[in-house]
Structure formats: C-alpha cells, structure tokens
Amino acid sequence: MSKGKILVVDDDRLVLATLSYGLTQAGFEVIDADNGDDAILLAREHRPELALLDIRMEGLTGFDVAAYLREYLQTPFMFLSAFADEATVAKVKELGAVAYLVKPLDISQIVPAVEAAFARTGTPPPAPAPVAAPPSELPHALDPTALAVGVLMHRYSLPRDEALTRLMSLAAADGHSLPEQARRIVDAVELLARPGAR
C-alpha cells in the first residue's frame, strides 16, 4: 500500500528522475513535473498529499506553485533548493513550507524528511510562535537521538557512526537541533507504527 501521494517538481530532469525513483522505491506514489505550469495542472488533477518543489525554475517558480497549492488546494509542500540565502529562507518561512532541504542531498536523506513531513501533515500547522513540545509518550530513559540513530541504521543498513552523521546532516538541512531532529524522526516512526496508519 502506498505511503502517500507526492508531487515532485524540478526542472533538472536527472534530479527529477532520481527523486521520483527513490521515493517510489520508498513506497510513495509519485507524480512528477519539470515545470511549474504542469505541476499546478497535475496537482489539480491528482490532489497529492504533499509536494516537493524545486525553487528556481523557468516560468513559474517553486514559490509560485507553493502559493497556488496553499491557496487553492491546501496541499502541504516542502522545498528542495541549492539556495539558502536569507531572502530565500524568509520566503520559505512566509509561505509556510513543512520543510526546506538544501541541495545537494541524496535520496536517503530526502526520504526520511518526506516521511516526517507526511507524519506532520496529519496535524494542524504549528503556530509561528515557539510552542513547548508536548511531553513525549516515550520513557525518559530512552534518548531520542540514540533511537533516531537506530532507526536510520535499521532503515539504511548503516553503521552507527554513519547513521549519526546522516542525522546531523538532516538536522542541519532542516534547521533543527540534533535532539529536535531525532525527536521528529522518532515521532514519525511512532505515527507510522500506529494501527490504521498508511
């Protein structure tokens, strides 16, 4: 059974093919487009549950597509971009992206971020002001960082040090602290493990 339907948009056909293949292998139903106009038409037709958007494209940009998705389809989206300048980051925040990944990334880094985004989109968007995280259901004895490393080791057959490095890269890409990123991964896994989860 599909983990969810995702629209992937990038004007680099090689990147698009790599992302589409990797996400399909990870169990997602993928719809892909190499420009913003097609992306909007496909989103209207297929109603994806999440969109992964490149920002800089000819014609309609990823920001244009995101604004449309938010306004008309209420589709959550995340950005994948080689640019991390202040103006770009500010625009990403303003549009309310669920995640912002900075290229270059390999698919093994993108899949957990997509899975975490799918896990988060089942809940209302967080308030802009920082809100205290709800107390975890996990016993305090379990360190979320160690658990997240274990998840990555298991999922990608990695040795512990490489899994930790990957977790650190994800945290940096998402702009989170290591424990926060670890908690997100653990929460996503717990959500997927619930009865009735896709």
Automatic annotation (TrEMBL):
The modification 4-aspartylphosphate is found at residue 54. Keywords: Phosphoprotein. Transmembrane segments: none annotated. Pfam families: Response_reg. The keyword Transcription regulation does not apply. InterPro entries: Bact_response_regulator, CheY-like_superfamily, Sig_transdc_resp-reg_receiver, WH-like_DNA-bd_sf. Residues 5-118 form the Response regulatory domain. It comes from the Bacteria. PANTHER family: RESPONSE REGULATORY DOMAIN-CONTAINING PROTEIN, STRESS RESPONSE REGULATOR PROTEIN 1. This is Response regulator. It comes from Pelomonas lactea. The lineage of its organism: Bacteria, Pseudomonadati, Pseudomonadota, Betaproteobacteria, Burkholderiales.
